[in-house]
Specification:
About 85% of the residues lie in helices and about 0% in strands. With about 50 residues, the protein is mainly α. The chain has a domain of about 30 residues. The longest helix has about 45 residues.
């Protein structure tokens, strides 16, 4: 039995994996640096974008 993914399915998997990786990075930053440094890093990233 062969399993083929369509482009849409692969795109959904890629987006889902990206979200999971970003969430894992955020949790890791929170665990290592605490809330204050975490919010400073997020604020600096948002400020850089705008």
């Amino acid at each position: 039995m062969t399993f083929f993914c369509t482009q849409a399915q692969l795109a959904r998997w890629a987006v889902g994996l990206g979200i999971v990786l970003l969430l894992a990075a955020a949790i890791g930053l929170w665990a290592r640096h605490g809330a204050a440094v975490f919010f400073d890093i997020v604020a600096a990233g948002v400020a850089y974008c705008f």
